[in-house]
Amino acid sequence: MKIHEIKTRVRYQETDQMGIVYYGNFFTYFEMGRTEYLRSLGLPYLELEREHIYFPVTETHCRFRSPAHYDDVLVVQTWVSELKHASVEFSHKVIREGSNTLIAEGFSKLACLNAGRKPASMPEKLKKLLE
Amino acid sequence: MKIHEIKTRVRYQETDQMGIVYYGNFFTYFEMGRTEYLRSLGLPYLELEREHIYFPVTETHCRFRSPAHYDDVLVVQTWVSELKHASVEFSHKVIREGSNTLIAEGFSKLACLNAGRKPASMPEKLKKLLE
Amino acid sequence: MKIHEIKTRVRYQETDQMGIVYYGNFFTYFEMGRTEYLRSLGLPYLELEREHIYFPVTETHCRFRSPAHYDDVLVVQTWVSELKHASVEFSHKVIREGSNTLIAEGFSKLACLNAGRKPASMPEKLKKLLE
Amino acid sequence: MKIHEIKTRVRYQETDQMGIVYYGNFFTYFEMGRTEYLRSLGLPYLELEREHIYFPVTETHCRFRSPAHYDDVLVVQTWVSELKHASVEFSHKVIREGSNTLIAEGFSKLACLNAGRKPASMPEKLKKLLE
Q: What domain range includes position A52?
């Protein structure tokens, strides 16, 4: 199982008045993790959409273990936790760089849709890369 | 079990290039549902924070059943699905007004923290209102 | 000159760790003001896009006079401050309900684009409504 | 005049249904530019806030010259365009990496506030660094 890592620094915009990263912003970090995971396989998501293949999220979950703060550098780990004919699940851990504190962990399931936005089998080349 | 409803209209800002509401924005709708649920009980969340009681989200989950689009009016239903000494879980359904289409459903668990941001029992008046 | 008003309540998501609304979020309030202004004229922006007419923002400006806080109800005033063949400028004031405090004021210029995303004259029916 | 550059890749979350970066998100890019500008001077904004010095934005402006798209790498240039006793203005250009296309240009003025959130002179060490 391949685990891919990216780093992202918490923006002021991502904080809320509790002084921590707003919970909904972790799903953007998950998105960034998926995007760079696919790029690391040699198949940027951008190219999939250019071929009219779309991967909307159908389910997502996150546990928040420790708050993240402005200017923290977060490490987002991403891996494929389930692969089906027409869907894929990515799992994530978010860790604070340096301290190794677990900040959050979760997953997102994505369905494969075709140009008409109907469920479709995943392209073979993508499936092979994800396996 | 009390179910509280609010309406919110999808902003252009909330859409993404797939032409639908970005998945992470549903957690903002959940927040709005919680906020108005508490206000409807007579205890705005604003007042809780003024008394240095905080409710960060510790876990959240969402299933996306059907896409929401720009300018849709969404009905966000909110209810208390679990109540403990020091935490509460709110559950939600998001429905498109008019069509009655189920757009999304999920929950958020929140922990009660005191002024020092340490776990604390929920204030009695809040617990009674939520029961 | 027609001035249109909407109200919006500040979401927790819109605050930052300074305890105020993040400055970039005012441009979402401006967008909501424009959207409801057009709806009040009988021509929702949604319908313009369905006819493949797009109005991207080409310039925007905002002065922040007083901070807005979580749970504030903001009144967003919108009016047309300049109308040209292929562009329109909307101006805005954001006021806190009740106190009448001026929170922010600014404008956005929008260009009219056709299906090929090229500059185009505004549809006559829209121009007449905006005059 | 020192010009500082950062790079940021456009997130899916930052796009809207027009298929471009939502205009309000450029103010987040400006914020990132300011943050990294200050860090490059050896004085992270985080440390200023730890000393209870705050820099809310009092005015901002942006011209959008060319749309930015998902997955674009944007270069955000930042420089100090005006320095006063109790305020500073940062100017920015946003350029698409590779093509050298000018995407956007603008500025943000920030006021210096003290712990009581009242206008205050800028700390001498900061003023010297910004000159």
A: 4-130
Residue B45's pLDDT band, with cuts at 50, 70 and 90, is: very high
Half-sphere exposure of residue C67, counting CA atoms within 13 Å on the CB side?
19
**Record: contact C63-D63, CB cut-off 8 A:** no
Q: pLDDT tens digits, chain C, 131 residues: what are they? A: 799 999 999 999 999 999 999 999 999 999 999 999 999 999 999 999 999 999 999 999 999 999 999 999 999 999 999 999 999 999 999 999 988 899 999 999 999 999 999 999 999 999 999 98
Cβ contacts of A71 on chain D, cutoff 8 Å: 35, 44-46
C-beta atoms of A17 and C15 within 8 A? yes
Catalytic residue among B2, B16, B47, B115: B16
Question: What does the alpha-carbon distance between residue D124 and residue D120 come to, in Å, rounded to a whole number?
Answer: 12
Average per-residue pLDDT in chain C?
A: 97
- Nearest beta carbon to residue D46 from set A11, A31, A71: A71
Smallest Cβ–Cβ distance between B70 and the set D17, D19, D20 belongs to: D17
Give the rounded distance of the alpha carbon of C99 from its chain centre: 22
- At residue B1, does pLDDT exceed 90? no
Q: Return d(Cα C28, Cα D27) in angstroms, integer.
A: 12
Q: How far is D59 from chain C (nearest CA, A)?
A: 4
Note the pLDDT of residue B70. 98
pLDDT at position D1 over 90 = no
Positive or negative CA dihedral for B7, A64, C69, C24? Answer: negative
Q: For this structure, is A16 an active site residue?
A: yes
CA C88 to CA A114: how far, in whole Å? 37
Q: Could you tell me the CATH number of the domain that includes residue D59?
A: 3.10.129.10
User: Which percentage of chain C shows pLDDT scores above 90?
Assistant: 96
CB pairs under 8 A between C and D: 57
**B20's tokens:** 């639908």
Other CB atoms within 10 A of residue B41 CB: 16
Please give the tally of structural domains in chain B.
1
Alpha-carbon gap: C106 to the closest alpha carbon of chain D (Å): 9
- Which residue's structure tokens are 């993404």? B16
CB-based contact B34:B78 (threshold 8 Å): yes
pTM of the model: 0.98
Q: Do D71 and A31 touch (CB under 8 A)?
A: no
Of D31, D44, D70, the CB nearest to A11: D31
